[in-house]
Amino acid sequence: MEGVGGDAASAVAPLGKWRNDFSKAFQYYLDRSTPHPVQRWLGTLVVAAIYVLRVYYVEGFYIVSYGLGIYVLNLLIGFLSPKVDPELEGLDGASLPTKGSDEFKPFIRRLPEFKFWYSITKAFCIALGMTFFSMFDVPVFWPILLCYWIVLFVLTMKRQILHMIKYKYVPFTIGKQKYTGKKPSPSGSAMPRD
Known about the structure:
Blueprint: H1 2-33, H2 37-58, H3 62-80, H4 113-130, H5 142-166
Helix pairs in contact: 2-4, 3-4, 3-5
């Protein structure tokens, strides 16, 4: 009896080793891709284009596309939202500045860019994989799904933009912030000192 159990355990050991090696190699390449956001997003656009072409040519899998759209919208909201929401959290000193005289606090996202990219890429890969199984091709009238998704997107983005305006934060920074110094007073030129 020991031989039978020993054979099963020895068959599982190489599978576990292979999984561990694959996980380490995957994490290594994922870590190496971190400082290259443009290349990462271009790769994601390629995967998204392949998915869109696959759905277009197969003329199906609209439910999968709708679910993918809702998931991406959810990720986008997390990406555009601050980590500490002034409406939800008490003012404990970690909130966004609301006045010009408040201390500058950097915008910290609820969902960091790398996790946002990784989640979207994973979602497109899973959705692409689902298009190879006919059980996920549920017949639906796709224009209704598209209209419903557009209405959801507009209402959600409107709420998010109003939140951004109310609490005066911009989730995007382009380049390094430059200090311009104090602006001259509008009362005219200063009098020379004697």
